[in-house]
Amino acid sequence: MAHDTDINGLSINKDARAMIARARDEGVETVWDRLAAQQPQCGYCAMGVSCRNCAMGPCRIDPFGEGPQKGVCGADADVIVARNLGRTIAAGASAHSDHGRDILEVFAELAEGKTSGYEIRDKDKLRALAGEWGIATEGREAFEIARDLAAAMMEDFGTRKSSLGFAARVPSQRIERWAELGITPRGIDRENVEMLHRTHMGVDNDYVNTLLHCLRTSLSDGWGGSMVATELSDVMFGTPKPVPSRVNLGALRPESVNIALHGHNPLLSDVIVQAAADPELVQLAKTKGAEGINLVGLCCTGNELQMRKGLPMAGNHLMQELVLLTGALDAMVVDYQCIMPAVTDVAKCFHTDVISTADKAKFTGATHISFDPRRGLEIGKEIVRRGVEAYGNRNPDRVRIPDETVEMMAGFSVEAILGALGGTPEPLVDAIKAGKIRGAVGVVGCNNPKIQQDYGHVMLTRRLIENDILVVVTGCSAIANGKAGQMMPKAAEMAGPGLREVCQALGIPPVLHMGSCVDNTRILVLAAALAKHLGVDICQLPLAGAAPEWYSEKAVSIGAYVVASGIYTVLGVQPPIFGSRNVVKLLAQDLDDVVGAKFAVEADPERAALLIRRHIEAKRKALGLEFRDV
Ligand code: BF8
Ligand code: SF4
Description:
Blueprint: H1 14-26, H2 31-37, H3 43-47, E1 50-51, E2 59-60, H4 77-111, H5 123-132, H6 142-157, H7 172-181, H8 188-198, H9 207-237, E3 243-247, E4 257-263, H10 266-276, H11 279-287, E5 293-298, H12 299-309, E6 313-315, E7 331-334, H13 343-348, E8 353-356, E9 367-368, H14 376-391, E10 406-410, H15 414-420, H16 426-433, E11 439-443, H17 455-466, E12 469-473, H18 475-483, H19 497-506, E13 511-513, H20 520-534, E14 543-547, H21 553-564, E15 569-571, H22 581-595, E16 599-601, H23 605-622
Parallel strand pairs: 4-5, 4-7, 5-6, 7-8, 8-9, 11-12, 11-14, 12-13, 14-15, 15-16
Antiparallel strand pairs: 1-2, 3-10
Helix pairs in contact: 4-6, 4-8, 4-9, 4-21, 5-6, 5-9, 8-9, 9-20, 9-21, 10-14, 17-23
The structure holds FE(4)-NI(1)-S(5) CLUSTER with Oxygen and iron/sulfur cluster.
């Protein structure tokens, strides 16, 4: 196994390093070993100039201009790079939107009274959503309203409409821009299918046209599939409110049955939380010698549970193998997305039962228990029972749980943020106008083993809050910031004087947990609400986005819809587009003229913070607000 990197360079987390060291001692392969084994990675693919879209290929373009400049079909670097980006975005948007559809289908069954373990927990939100979608609520039962809302939302996935239901949330200036550019998302599935069509050999051979459709496809995710997922999850599982929680591998308890919930969709994990409280199962755990049943989260399923229930979080993306290396995890329950196939291999080195649950996401080496919402609670109990049984196979001599947990706060939905402000964005707008808060930035996305784990998230966030910029986080970035102690109200001490004053007055942290990756839509909703409140377009606000350690196709879709919504976005990992100067110029420069926002790529978080601060001050200046020279 190749170990060319010093462990300290792999992660900033003490607990991660301890487990990586254990993996090396015991000969267990992890993501860092596999990355080393892949070196050197393909330069053509890294630049986006390889294509295998048809059997006349595979083809590649020589980025140095000496070798071939066209694929067999005649596609040049611009066309190939744009097509590859389009397929990446379609995959990412599809992942989010299919997750949204799964929630919607269960919501529809719930409305018909056919599910077990689900209820409508936020009836106010249901009524508010129905109002937005033009569905009558007066004198009607929640289930009747839910039935109509489900039917209306299902239409958004198809081809019968020319714009999405949530478009009414978008400021009118932005809607007009999208219409002028021809990028108004029509149907969620439609844009993704059309992207696959356009990128077939011999269809869209104009890179500008393809890139515009990239934006439209991503918008069908942000204002479509992901937004359906977030909003209906709130209706079914509760709209998050500020809640205390904890994070780190120390969330595992040596004396308890430990079950990790990993993946993205709260449909199953929510019923598992109910099942784990079942007195019979708790008793069973006790008869096996355990103190009780301890659930912990990983990745975005973890975020969903942490946001709504304060469930402790074991870690983010690069912790999924390391949590197994504690030897203290009895079951890892997975649904889908970001679950490395490697987890079943690492689990084999211990007693851990990996349980897959989605029929569309099976894992060789895992136990598959097919999820069915009609028997949700029963299946939840069956899964928890397996975890309790696996505890009996645990070898206490192999248990190493490395660290104390860190306290963090979660639960900052838009409703909760507005609630903390007294029900209106006015106080936030006033703080921005007064310059106490210079602006706000969403720091989101993944871990990537090419970057020292969490360094990008934590350092960028630190530099922003020090400079009076409010940070909102989702996904693995939220977990990284939690581990770094930046998500408690006392972290306001790390912030600049203006932001500190506002946070201390409201009793909130300077870094707000807004949820999972589909919950980036909460950030869109907040940005749109601020823009509407001020009567401006989103692109005029002092806002930015950043994905310092992104790895996934979903992150590319998120970046694209954030930019298409008018928010400047800085990526910390180079996307595979640098084989086409024209594509880079369009995305990093020309886009600003058409959608009022663009991308930047900057690996160093200190420099990324500077780019963002300059951008925010420029937006302040353009709005006629007091600004600083950065
Ligand atoms: O959807 S941040 S590594 S876990 S893709 Fe995955 Fe990235 Fe984490 Fe959540 Ni989002
Ligand atoms: Fe080559 Fe064109 Fe086929 Fe791509 S689509 S593999 S560039 S011939």
